[in-house]
Specification:
CATH topology: Methylamine Dehydrogenase, Chain H
CATH class: Mainly Beta
Family: Belongs to the TCAB1 family.
Number of strands: 33
Strand content: 35-45%
Radius of gyration: 22 Å
CATH architecture: 7 Propeller
Number of domains: 1
Helix content: under 10%
Mean pLDDT: 82
GO molecular function, one term: RNA binding
CATH superfamily: YVTN repeat-like/Quinoprotein amine dehydrogenase
Strand order of the largest sheet: 5-1-33-30-29
Organism: Bicyclus anynana
Structural class: mainly beta
GO biological process, one term: Cajal body organization
Number of helices: 2
Shape: globular
Protein name: WD repeat-containing protein 79
Largest sheet: 5 strands, mixed
Amino acid sequence: MDNCSMQIDDTPGPEICEKEPDIHQIVDVPVENTDTPFYEYPSLFTSKTLLELCNSSWSRTASAKQDVQPYLRGCKWSPDGTCCLTVVNNDGVHITEVPRDLYTGTVSPTRTIDVLDSTIHVKEAGLVYDFCWYPGMNSCIPETCCWLTTRQNAPVQMWDAFDGSLRCSYRGFNAVDEMEPALSVTFTTDGTRIIAGYKKVLRTFDVDRPGRDFAEHKTNSPASCFATDSNLLAMGSWNTTITLYNMNEIGTYKSIGKMHGHSGGVTHLKFTPDGLKLVSGARKDHRLLVWDIRYYRKPLNILTRVVKTNQRIYFDVSPCGKYLITGGTDGVVKVWNVDTVNWKDSLDVTDVDKDNSTFRFPLHRDCCNSISIHPIRPILATGSGQYHLHDPILTPEDGVKKENGQSDITINDKNANSAIDSDMKYSSVSENSLVFWWIGDMT
């Protein structure tokens, strides 16, 4: 991504921020007059429908092997809202920019759908475990435009969002001086330190000191995911527990307590904007648990979604704290509105299968694993895809399954989306796409 492409105006240099007082100035310019509201987050889902704005898709080449499947594994909006960071299996990391006509105003239902190309493509080899943006990212300040990735057999790496170059790396070494890959990574809220989670330890790096200098804190379980808010750190683990830590200024951690409730390994955590609630999701667990961090012995609420695989299924909380949105392996996006269904308060937790969501949108034919709400505009980014097992009985020549000498037609598009409660699912339907949806008012 070049310098001009991430800016709002076409003219390079410092004049960009002076000419366009919208996204960048909303994010970083301090409020001088506190008597009037500086920025009000727009209303969401007022029309009770979604409008597709842009899409981008990935497909396997004809010469690729059967197990090479470029499905999405997560998408996250940049903190300044100018672009979206996407991780694609077997295809590295992509950055996709928001069309400039979406920076201000509303949209019309007759708007043409844009087909987006990746502005930056980092062809990383190996499985990407986790990724995150620098929290102070602003495309008017090139030094802040970067993200972190941690992947298989590699250290924590920082990448430049303008040209896709590798800036630096942060290496964690074990007791026998072997470099370990981190399972999860995140920035502290002020952006001065990097927290990397390993199998039995947390390592804290100073952002301005790349290399192998770190502080270490031992844990009893692997760190599968993180969520931070002020001086609080929530760490999810594959042993189904969530641990709360208090971080002090010198980078040490004090354990506050553990939360139990999931039946699978915790894959994603998210604090609400007020910092009082924590939402957690796990693999092969149909429940989203809402916790009050002041009374964390049991969850406040249990929400339902469809998660039938070990894949990480993301969810997100709107910046206004009013909406909780999640995907699912059935391709359905569920929305909870705190004004309609108070998903922050306790319900009858015995009825865990009850669906009390405010809206349900069947947006994808395949698994909807990625959800990210734009930090400023009423735009929702969703990503789809999952690993599809190849039926060993299926013959590519005739396209049928042979059982007891007879031929049966394989699963077709009509019933491929139906739920199959089995350990192996053979489906001919795959959708590997990144889609931007308009969720605000329409003209």
